[in-house]
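Blackboard transcription, Thursday session:
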Amino acid sequence: MIWQFDIIILILMVVAAIISLRVKDLLGATMVFGIYSFLICLLWAEMGAVDVAFTEAAVGAGVSTVIMTATVFSTTRRSRD
Amino acid sequence: MELLAAGFIEDNIVPKFNYWIYVILMMIGLYAMITKNNLIKKLIGMAVFQTAIILFYVSIGVKEESGIPILGHGQHHEIVEEGKPSGEVITKDEFANPLPHVLMLTAIVVGVSTLGLALAISQRIHGSFGTLEEDEILDQLRPGGHD
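(Written on the board underneath:)
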């Protein structure tokens, strides 16, 4: 565990979470949420949980971004908040 | 006073930084689930909440100066007899605790399936109401509201 990486990635994660909840465009919010998922995948590889890291990269960042993008394209892209 | 603040930061903020961030992320997710009006935004908040909980559990298993929980090449576990240690002894401080990792592996998969089901329900809601905003859906559901 490298604490410098730890602190940088954790702060970037909070920033990504706040941005993905404040962006009005739903496709943009989905993409920033994908960035958030890859950041937490990086954090788990750094904390020694490599099995959780590659599961998150495949399932969390990959599949959930894809299904959320599919939902945004089949419904609407605008959001009021 | 400054010394006290510096001591507080050194004792409580820096070594427990993962836990502070997990609380912050969890509150961000809870806030989004309660106050956001759009259903997709609510689901993003739910996913942030789930990853915050997983972050808490994985942070429990981390030790200082620990590596990944895999034996290196040539290392092997031997049962040490009483009084006569044979071969090299592996201490548990070299490895992160793998038990929370395995538990959270299940939680990630369950979280993604929850998200997929919720997005599918959102698509059906958009099909029948034409909107994803919560207040507009409630307006249409109210008796006397336009159909």
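Lecturer's comment: Chain B has five helices and no strands.
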